[in-house]
Design a protein that fits this description.
Blueprint (H helix, E strand, L loop, with lengths): L2 H12 L4 H7 L4 H15 L4 E4 L2 E5 L1 H28 L3 E7 L1 H18 L3 E7 L2 H10 L4 E4 L9 E8 L2 E6 L12 H4 L4 E4 L7 H9 L6 E4 L2 H9 L5 E4 L11 E5 L8 E7 L7 H9 L5 H8 L5 E2 L3
Parallel strand pairs: 3-4, 3-5, 6-13, 8-9
Antiparallel strand pairs: 1-2, 5-12, 6-12, 7-10, 7-11
Organism: Pseudomonas typographi
Family: Belongs to the LysR transcriptional regulatory family.
Pfam families: HTH_1, LysR_substrate
Length: 312
C-alpha cells in the first residue's frame, strides 16, 4: 500500500467515483488509476469498491471505513509536505474547500481580487461533499470552507454568513413559462423537469421539486449545474438552480425567472475551525469574499463561546 493509492481512493469520493475525473485531477492516466485501485484491493485482500458492469459506483462497507482513514492519512501527508515547502520558501499557502458550484461560479472573482493584493500567496481550491468539507477543516487539510447552508451539528466549526442565494427557474429562450412573471408550483408541473440534486445540498428545494414533479411529464436528476444547464438549453426540461450559477453573458439561450416567491433564500457561509486561526491570510481572503466580514467579526465568531451560526 502506498500514499498514491490512498490519494486515488480519496479523489474517488470527490469526483463522484468517476475514474477519468480522478485521473484528470491527479494529472495521471485512467488506466493507472484503475490499476492502482485494483492493486490496493489485492494487497488488502478485501473488496473496497462496489462495481457494476466494471464501473465503480461506490464503496463497500469496509471501503467506507478505509476511505475515512485514507482521508486522514492523505491530509497528514499534505500537512507534512506543506511544512517542508514552507521551510524552503517564504511564499504563503491558503487552502479553500467548497462545493463544485461555488468553486466554478462564485470563487473566480474572489480569487482574482485576492491575488491582486497578495500575489505571493499560493492558493489551493479543493472540492468536496459536505462531509469532506467538514473532515478537511477539522483535520487541518483546509483553512477555509464555503458552504451552501448551515450544518449546526458540528460544534467544532463556526459558520459565518457572507451572502444569500436566491433560486432561479431556468428554461430555454422562447419557452412557454416566459409568459409568467411569478410562476406557481402548479405551473412548474406542466413541463418536464431537470432537478439539480447536488450531494452537497440540503433537501428543501429538492424535496419540494420531488413532491410537485410527480405530476410532471418527465423528471431527470443531475448532480452538476453545468449538466443541468446543458439539458435545459436543449429543451429537455426546465430547472430550479442557485442564482450564482447563472450568467446572462455565459448562458445565452437560457432565460431566468426569480423564484424567491417559491423558495426561501438561504445564507451562504464561510466556515472556520473554532478557536483556531493559524493563517493570517484567512482574514484577507474573507475580506475579498465579503466586505461585511472584517477581522473583528471573524474573531468574534471563531473565538466566541456560542456554537452554530454567527451573525455577520
Amino acid at each position: 500500500m502506498n500514499i498514491q493509492q490512498l490519494k486515488f481512493l480519496v479523489e474517488l469520493t470527490r469526483n463522484d467515483f468517476n475514474v477519468s475525473h480522478v485521473a484528470k485531477a491527479l494529472c495521471t492516466s485512467q488506466p493507472n488509476v484503475s490499476m492502482n485501485l485494483a492493486s490496493l484491493e489485492q494487497e488488502l485482500g478485501i473488496r473496497v469498491l462496489k462495481r457494476k458492469h466494471r464501473r465503480i459506483i461506490g464503496f463497500t462497507e469496509h471501503g467506507e471505513l478505509i476511505a475515512t482513514s485514507a482521508r486522514t492519512i492523505v491530509a497528514e501527508v499534505d500537512r507534512i509536505i506543506d511544512i517542508s515547502e514552507k521551510s524552503k520558501s517564504k511564499s504563503e499557502v491558503l487552502r479553500v474547500i467548497t462545493t463544485h458550484s461555488q468553486a466554478r461560479y462564485l470563487l473566480p472573482d474572489v480569487i482574482e481580487r485576492f491575488i491582486k493584493e497578495f500575489p505571493n500567496v499560493r492558493i489551493t481550491i479543493l472540492q468536496g461533499r459536505n462531509d469532506e468539507i467538514v473532515d478537511s477543516l477539522i483535520s487541518g487539510q483546509a483553512d477555509i470552507g464555503l458552504f451552501n447552508f448551515l450544518v449546526t451539528k458540528h460544534v467544532d466549526l463556526v459558520f459565518i454568513p457572507y451572502g444569500k442565494c436566491d433560486r432561479l427557474i431556468i428554461a430555454p429562450v422562447g419557452h412557454e413559462i416566459e409568459q409568467y412573471d411569478h410562476p406557481s408550483l402548479d405551473q412548474l408541473t406542466l413541463y418536464p423537469m431537470v432537478i439539480y440534486e447536488p450531494a452537497t445540498s440540503n433537501s428543501q428545494v429538492v424535496g419540494t421539486l420531488e413532491r410537485i414533479s410527480k405530476d410532471s411529464p418527465q423528471v431527470i436528476h443531475c448532480t452538476n449545474t453545468d449538466v443541468v444547464k446543458s439539458y435545459v438549453k436543449r429543451g429537455i426540461g426546465i430547472s430550479v438552480i442557485p442564482d450564482f450559477v447563472y450568467s446572462p453573458a455565459e448562458d445565452q439561450g437560457l432565460i431566468a425567472i426569480n423564484a424567491s416567491h417559491l423558495f426561501s433564500s438561504p445564507n451562504l457561509y464561510a466556515v472556520l475551525k473554532r478557536q483556531k486561526i493559524t493563517n493570517a491570510r484567512i482574514y484577507d481572503f474573507l475580506r475579498a469574499l465579503s466586505v461585511g466580514l472584517p477581522r473583528s467579526v471573524v474573531d468574534a465568531a471563531v473565538f466566541g463561546e456560542a456554537p452554530g451560526e454567527v451573525e455577520a
